[in-house]
Amino acid sequence: MSLVDWFEEKHRLKLLTTPKPKYPESDPSKGLWTQCDNCESMLYVRFLKQNQRICEECGYHLEMNSTERIELLIDPGTWYPMDEEMIPCDVLEFFDQQSYNDRLEENQVRTGLTDAVQTGIGQLNGITIALGVMDFQFMGGSMGSVVGEKLARLIEYATDNSLPLVIVCASGGARMQEGTLSLMQMAKIASVLQIHQVQKGLLYISILTYPTTGGVTASFGMLGDIIIAEPNAYIAFAGKRVIEQTLRQEVPDGFQVAESLFDHGLLDLIVPRAILKGVLGELFELYNAAPCKKNISKSI
Q1: How is 77-114 classified by DSSP, letter by letter?
Q2: Residue stretches of the annotated binding site for Zn(2+)
Q3: What is the domain range of residue 274?
Q4: Are 54 and 76 in a shared domain?
Q5: What are 112-134's pLDDT values in tens digits?
Q6: Which residues line the annotated binding site?
Q7: Does residue 299 fall inside a structural domain?
Q8: Residue 290 pLDDT grade (very low, low, confident, very high; cuts 50, 70, 90)
């Protein structure tokens, strides 16, 4: 039995024994028309979705939810999600303008997700990969305990089964409602990535989208063997205003977009969304054909 067949059977049995989540599937994009964030052109939502949420007028890459990204990258009928039953809890009993529990339930109902990341196994152009996709529409893609645990489990599964790993980042950083618990996820994910990349010699590709900031940038976002960004993606640790207030110096416009980071050597590639799947497929084919791959595995 192949790995995919085994995972499919496991997922089928899980569906038979696990009750369905109470949160309905929903589409956050409501209405017939939307406006481009860059050129302010009015765009027909139906055509925009067919165009992978790329503005027809200026080519700007608009925000994309995690389900759409999975459909963009994974071959139809080959996606098997992991750890869907994991739901965050309010350990600190955090309350600002509303309780953390109320915020969670509001976002779960609105997005149809249990937290700000989807993880699973699928095939990209026939190659089995482990994929994690963050969703900015769920509390700004913030990284809490569940996000960190789901990504850590995905990486461990990829390591145990010698699968290449892809994580699509879209996050405002650590989740303040979970305090230090959210910051601990940075070290946890980095530690399992070290085993995946260094000890096992397996491939990890990080894809940075608009926006990737805070603790995600400071940890697994920048730890990829290959770091790819979408055009004009906002990538930073702290925002422009925070940097200016801290350093008391004016920061030039555009220094935190993907093109500026690429010019300064922080990124490997800037790949438009329309050809991203093809580029990833070629990278995986090159990786599988690398003569040093087996030698690395044997030497460890």
Answers
A1: T--EEE-TT-----TT--BSSSBHHHHHHHHHHHHS-S
A2: 36, 39, 55, 58
A3: 64-293
A4: no
A5: 999 999 999 999 999 999 999 99
A6: 36, 39, 55, 58
A7: no
A8: confident
